[in-house]
Amino acid sequence: MIKRVLKIILFAILAIISFILIYVFITLIFSIITVNKKVDYESNIDIYIHTNGVHTDIVLPIKFDTIDWSKKVKYSDTKGNDTTMKYISFGWGDRGFYLETPTWADLKFSIAFNAAFGLGK
């Protein structure tokens, strides 16, 4: 009985240590990988992250050197329908969660379940 308990404890300790070692190894490997070493610092673009505590959006200028979002996203398709807008924001995730959960108090189990398991739009 004691041997079995000791084996379980030893297995749990080894599992935790293995997890930590694998995590550190993966972190080191992925930190070595470089992305786009050649950066043009002359064309800086301000990109913002906006959150209300429930949802997070990426906020971009509507027009800049490489893309004009007003050609891809029509002003008439936005809630404000304002042609003087300078920025556009994009949210990501489950559509139902995004539209039906403005605050955490509005969260329903069915919405969270669909979002968590990819069952919504």
> In what order do the strands lie side by side in the largest sheet?
1-2-5
Shape designation? flat
What's the story with the biggest beta sheet?
Answer: 3 strands, antiparallel
Task: Summarize the helix and strand pattern as letters.
Answer: HEEEEHEHH
User: How many beta-strand elements?
Assistant: 5
Explain what you see.
By secondary structure, this protein is of the alpha+beta class. 40% of the residues lie in helices and 16% in strands. It has four helices and five strands; from the N terminus they run H-E-E-E-E-H-E-H-H. It has helices at residues 2-32, 69-72, 95-100, 109-116, and strands at 48-51, 56-61, 63-64, 67-68, 87-91. The chain has a three-stranded antiparallel beta sheet, with no helix packed on it. Strands 3-4 form a two-stranded antiparallel ribbon. The chain is flat. The model has no long low-confidence stretch (mean pLDDT 86).
How are the SSEs ordered, and which strands pair?
Blueprint lengths: L1 H31 L15 E4 L4 E6 L1 E2 L2 E2 H4 L14 E5 L3 H6 L8 H8 L5
Antiparallel strand pairs: 1-2, 2-5, 3-4
Quick recap:
With 121 residues, the protein is α+β, with helices and mostly antiparallel strands. It has helices at 2-32, 69-72, 95-100, 109-116; strands at residues 48-51, 56-61, 63-64, 67-68, 87-91. It is 40% helix and 16% strand.
